[in-house]
Write a structure and sequence with these properties.
The chain is α+β, with helices and mostly antiparallel strands. The protein is built from 17 helices and 44 strands. Helix 4 packs parallel to helix 5. The protein is globular and about 90 Å long. It starts with 14 loop residues before the first strand and ends with a helix.
Length: 880
C-alpha cells in the first residue's frame, strides 16, 4: 500500500491523536480525537506466569513501545542504567495487546470515505475495529491502511492491536531450514538460538536484535502515529516536483498532482509556487478528466532566475513551496503543500586510465567532496526521539563542517523532521534502505513484495527533500557474501540453495529497489549496496565504488598509520572507538563500578561481546601509554579516536579528486556506551567532534607524517580560489624556534594542493625528536585559517612536562570567553567544568607554546561558579 502525503500528529502520553483530514484538506480541520491507550500481556501468553501483574490493562503511550510503557509503569528498571539487559529479554518473547477507544464526529461520519492509517506497527500486528478484523501487518517500516467506511460509530469505537513476538513467530521456520543464511549478532542471552537468528527474516529495525554499539531490546509497539482520514468524492493524495532542467537563469519543473476519485468525472486543480520568501512566482489552473481510482495530472512549470538549494558551504539552502488545491473555491476544496529545494544531483562515475572509476556527488554541476559521518538511530526506542534531539545532533554535524550524513541501513527510515532539518542546514543525505547486514531471503516472493511496498512508501514520503541525494540498497550484504565467507560457506553446504539465495539478492537489490527509485525517486541515483561497485565483481574495492575500511580497529587491528596507505574513491565507513564523556557515564555506571573490566562497564561495551576494552587499550597503550585510572582511560580513548580519525580524514581530503568522500563511523549513539561515535548519547561532544570541526573545515592544512616524511597539502572546498600564505615552523617543546619557512600560494577552488614533502632529518637537523614538533599553518592575510601540530615520535615518548597553563575566564555578552596560554607545549588539552555542562566552540586541542587561544563558551552558571569548577586535563596529567 503506497504512502501518501499526510499530516503527522504526535500523541502525548496515554493519548491517541486520530487526525481527521482529507489529505491536508480544507475546509476540514485536522481535529485530533483523544482516546486513552492501554496495554497488557496477551491473555494466555507464557510470560504471564512470571509477570502476572501484566494480565490487567495498564496505561500506555502511543507512539511508543512496550519497553517504554513498562518503564513508565515502574515495572522494569531503566534499560540503560547499570546492567539490566539480560533480565529484560523476556519482553521480546512475549505477545502484547494494545487497545484504544475513540469517538467520531458527525462531519467525519457523513463523508463517503474513511481510512485508518498506521504509520508504524512493530511488527507482526493483528488489528481489529469494533470487534471485527481490520488488517494484518508484518512490516514495521510500512504505512498500513484499511478502509473503515461504514464501520465507524459516533461513540465508543474500540481499536485493538495484538503484537506477536517476532522471535516466537519466526523461529520455528528458521530452525527448520537445513542451512541458514547468515545473520548479524547472535543473542548472548538464550532468548534465541545462536544458530537460528530471526532478525534477517523480519522487517523491523535490525539494531533491536543487538549490535556492536548497542543493547538487545526486541521491541513491540505502535511506534508512529495512527490517523483517521476521511473525504468525499475526490481527494489529493500526493504532489511530486521533478526538476527537468536547472541553472542560474532558468528552471523547468514537472509537477505531478495525484488525485483519488471515487468515479469518473472532472477536477479543477490550482497549482501555486511560492519562492523562499513566500512570494508567489507561478500559478496554473487546470481542469482534468478523472478515472475511478488513482489519477496523475502532470503540470509543467517554468521559473526565471531560480534560487537553487546548495549543500552547506556552497550557497544558500533555498526552498520553494508548491501548493496544489483540488476544487478551489468550493466547499469540497482540499490542499497539499510541499516544501522542496531546486537542485540537480548526479553520482559521477568517470573511468580513469588505470581501470578505476570515480565516485563523486555532483550538485548543481559542482563536484562536492563529501565530509561527514554515518548516522545510526538516536535511541533504542524510536518514539522517544523528538525534534529537539534530532536538531541537536544534525546542528552539531553542520557545526563540525560536515556536509553529508549516511543514514545507515540497520535502523529505521527517519521521520520527516530529520530531513526537514537536513534540508534547512544543507546536509546531504545518503539514505540506505533498511538492511543492515548478513543476507536476506530475497528468494521468497512474498518477502520481496513486502520490501517493494516498504520502499515505495518511504521513497514517496521522502522524495521531495533536496537533502536526499542517494538511495542505497543495503549495508554490507554484498561484501559479506563475497568477502566474509557467507557465500563460500553456504555454497559449500548447499550449492543449489546458495545460488538461489544469491539470485534473490540480485533480484531484490539489483532490480526491485532500483526500479522503485527510478519510478518514484524524482531522479535521485540508486546504489545497490555499501560498500560495492553496484554489483560489479568486486564488492569492497579501493579503485571503484565506495569503500568500508576496518583493517584499522577491526581485523587485523592495524596501527592507525595504515589509514595513510588506503586511498579509496569514496570512504563511506571507517572508525575508532571511544567512551562517552565521563559526565555522561556518571549517571549510568555507579562510581564503584567505574573500572575498565567491571561487569557494568563490560555491559556497556558491546564490541567483541564485552571484550572491546582490550582492543581500546591496545591502541591507547601503543601511542599514548598506560592510563592511570578509569577517567584517564575514558579521556585517552577519546584522544586516540580523534587523532586517528583526523589522520584518515585529512588523507582522504588530500587525495582529492581521486577520493571524493570521507564519512567516518559514526556521528551519534543509541544509548550511553562505548562506541565509534563523535557525539555521545547525552549530546556531549567527544574529542573527535571538536577535531572534526577543524579537519573538515573548508580551508585546512593536511600535514601527514609517514615513513619519516611529512607531506603538506592545502585544502579548499569552496568554489572560489584563495590567495593564501602557509607557514612551517620547527620548535622545541618550550617554544624555541629552530626553523621557519613561509610561502604564498594561489589555492585553486575545489582542490587539494600538495605544497611540499619534508624529511624528518631535514626538519630536525639533529634536534631531539622527543622534544621537538613541527607546526604547519594556513593564513588568509593576517587571519589564521588552520593550524596542525605534527609529532616526530609517539605521544608516550614525548618529553612533556606538567603544564603550567595561564587561564582567564570573563563574561562576554550572553556567554563567556576563556583565554589560555602556556609556556610549554600542551598535548591534547581537555577543558571541563566539574558537575556542569558548558558548550565550548573549541576543545581537545594542542596548545603551542607562547600562543594565546581564545575560546567562547555558554553555560547555565555564573562566572564565579565556572571559575571554581574549571578543570584542564592534558596528556601529561593522565599517563602512569
Amino acid at each position: 500500500m503506497r504512502a501518501r502525503s499526510r499530516l503527522h500528529v504526535i500523541a502525548p502520553a496515554c493519548w491517541l491523536l486520530l487526525v481527521l483530514l482529507a489529505a491536508w484538506a480544507l475546509p476540514v480541520a485536522a481535529t485530533p480525537l483523544a482516546a486513552e491507550w492501554s496495554f497488557r500481556l496477551l491473555p494466555g501468553d507464557a510470560q504471564l506466569g512470571a509477570h502476572p501483574q501484566l494480565a490487567k490493562w495498564r496505561a500506555a503511550q502511543v507512539p511508543g513501545a512496550v519497553h517504554t510503557d513498562l518503564l513508565a509503569q515502574g515495572l522494569i528498571p531503566d534499560p540503560y542504567v547499570g546492567a539490566p539487559e539480560a533480565g529484560l529479554q523476556w519482553i521480546g518473547l512475549a505477545d502484547w495487546e494494545y487497545r484504544a477507544q475513540f469517538d467520531v464526529d458527525a462531519a467525519t461520519l457523513a463523508r463517503a470515505h474513511a481510512e485508518l492509517a498506521f504509520d508504524g506497527l512493530d511488527t507482526f500486528a493483528t488489528v481489529t475495529l469494533n470487534g471485527q478484523p481490520l488488517l494484518q501487518a508484518n512490516n514495521s517500516h510500512r504505512t498500513w491502511r484499511a478502509r473503515v467506511d461504514g464501520r465507524l460509530r459516533a461513540r465508543g469505537n474500540e481499536l485493538r492491536i495484538v503484537l506477536r513476538s517476532p522471535i516466537r513467530t519466526l523461529l520455528p521456520d528458521v530452525q527448520a531450514m537445513p542451512h541458514k543464511i547468515a545473520g548479524n549478532y547472535p543473542s548472548p542471552y538464550g532468548d534465541e538460538p545462536k544458530d537460528a537468528m530471526v532478525g534477517n527474516f523480519v522487517r523491523k529495525p535490525g539494531y533491536h536484535f543487538g549490535w556492536d554499539w548497542g543493547p538487545r531490546y526486541v521491541t513491540a509497539g505502535i511506534w508512529r502515529p495512527v490517523r483517521l482520514e476521511s473525504w468525499g468524492a475526490q481527494r489529493l493524495t500526493a504532489v511530486a516536483v521533478q526538476t527537468r532542467a536547472l541553472d542560474a537563469a532558468h528552471a523547468d519543473l514537472e509537477v505531478a498532482v495525484e488525485v483519488e476519485s471515487a468515479a469518473v468525472g472532472t477536477a479543477a486543480v490550482q497549482l501555486e509556487v511560492l519562492d523562499p520568501d513566500g512570494k508567489r512566482v507561478a500559478r496554473i489552473d487546470r481542469r482534468a478528466m478523472l478515472q475511478a481510482g488513482d489519477n496523475r495530472i502532470t503540470i509543467p512549470v517554468a521559473l526565471q532566475k531560480p534560487r537553487r538549494w546548495w549543500p552547506v558551504g556552497q550557497g544558500e539552502q533555498a526552498r520553494y513551496t508548491v501548493r496544489a488545491t483540488l476544487a478551489p473555491g468550493t466547499a469540497e476544496a482540499s490542499r497539499i503543500e510541499q516544501r522542496t529545494g531546486l537542485r540537480t544531483v548526479e553520482l559521477r562515475r568517470e573511468a580513469d586510465r588505470n581501470g578505476g572509476q570515480g565516485f563523486a556527488f555532483v550538485i548543481n554541476g559542482v563536484p562536492i567532496f563529501a565530509k561527514g559521518a554515518n548516522v545510526i538511530p538516536f535511541d533504542m526506542f524510536p518514539a522517544r526521539v523528538d525534534e529537539a534531539r534530532i536538531r541537536r545532533e544534525l546542528t552539531a554535524a553542520r557545526d563540525a563542517n560536515m556536509n553529508m550524513l549516511r543514514n545507515w541501513g540497520g535502523g529505521y527510515y527517519e521521520d520527516d523532521v530529520f530531513f526537514d532539518i537536513a534540508d534547512e542546514l544543507g546536509l546531504l543525505v545518503w539514505q540506505d534502505f533498511m538492511f543492515g547486514g548478513g543476507m536476506q531471503p530475497g528468494y521468497d516472493p512474498a518477502f520481496r513484495a513486502n520490501v517493494i511496498g516498504e520502499a515505495r512508501d518511504n521513497v514517496r514520503r521522502l522524495r521531495h527533500h533536496p537533502s536526499v541525494v542517494l538511495w542505497c540498497g543495503n549495508n554490507e550484504e554484498e561484501t559479506a557474501w563475497k568477502d566474509w565467507g557467507h557465500g563460500r560457506d553456504l555454497t559449500t553446504a548447499d550449492p543449489v540453495f546458495a545460488a538461489k539465495v544469491w539470485q534473490g539478492y540480485v533480484d531484490l537489490f539489483g532490480h526491485d529497489l532500483r526500479q522503485v527509485v527510478a519510478e518514484e525517486g524524482l531522479g535521485v541515483p540508486y546504489w545497490s549496496s555499501s560498500p560495492s561497485n553496484d554489483l560489479d565483481e568486486k564488492a569492497n574495492d579501493s579503485t571503484r565504488g565506495d569503500k568500508h575500511y576496518w583493517q584499522v580497529w577491526g581485523n587485523p587491528a592495524l596501527p592507525v598509520t595504515a589509514y595513510l596507505r588506503e586511498t579509496p574513491r569514496f570512504m563511506s565507513e571507517y572508525g575508532l572507538q571511544a567512551w562517552p564523556v565521563l559526565r555522561t557515564l556518571d549517571g549510568i555506571i555507579p562510581a564503584a563500578e567505574q573500572q575498565v573490566d567491571s561487569p557494568t562497564v563490560r555491559a556497556h561495551q558491546k564490541f567483541m561481546a564485552g571484550e572491546g576494552n582490550q582492543r581500546l587499550l591496545k591502541y591507547i597503550e601503543e601511542e599514548y601509554g598506560t592510563p592511570r585510572d578509569f577517567p584517564a582511560f575514558v579521556y585517552l580513548s577519546q584522544v586516540m579516536q580523534a587523532d586517528g580519525i583526523q589522520l584518515a580524514a585529512l588523507h582522504h581530503r588530500a587525495s582529492r579528486p581521486y577520493t571524493m568522500g570521507s564519512l567516518y563511523w559514526q556521528l551519534n549513539d543509541v544509548w550511553p556506551g562505548a562506541s565509534w561515535s563523535s557525539i555521545d548519547y547525552a549530546g556531549r561532544w567527544k574529542a573527535l567532534h571538536f577535531h572534526a570541526r577543524r579537519f573538515f573545515a573548508d580551508h585546512a592544512v593536511a600535514a601527514l607524517r609517514d615513513d619519516a616524511t611529512i607531506r603538506v597539502s592545502l585544502l579548499n572546498d569552496r568554489q572560489q580560489g584563495l590567495q593564501a600564505t602557509w607557514r612551517l615552523r620547527v620548535i622545541d617543546l618550550d617554544g624555541t624556534l629552530r626553523s621557519e619557512q613561509r610561502h604564498t600560494v594561489a589555492l585553486p577552488p575545489l582542490s587539494a594542493l600538495e605544497v611540499g614533502r619534508f624529511a624528518d632529518a631535514d626538519l630536525l637537523k639533529g634536534a631531539d625528536p622527543t622534544r621537538t614538533v613541527a607546526v604547519v599553518e594556513l593564513f588568509d592575510g593576517g587571519k589564521r585559517l588552520s593550524q596542525q601540530v605534527v609529532y616526530f615520535v609517539p605521544a608516550r615518548a614525548l618529553a612533556l612536562s606538567r603544564p603550567a597553563i595561564d587561564s582567564a575566564l570573563r563574561a562576554d555578552g550572553d556567554g563567556y570567553v576563556l583565554t589560555l596560554r602556556s609556556p610549554t607545549l600542551v598535548r591534547a588539552l581537555w577543558i571541563a567544568f566539574d558537575g556542569l555542562d558548558a558548550t565550548l566552540d573549541d576543545n581537545a586541542l594542542d596548545l603551542v607554546p607562547g600562543e594565546t587561544v581564545t575560546i567562547r563558551l555558554r553555560a547555565d552558571a555564573d562566572l564565579a561558579m565556572l571559575r571554581r569548577t574549571l578543570r584542564l586535563h592534558s596528556l601529561a596529567d593522565v599517563i602512569r
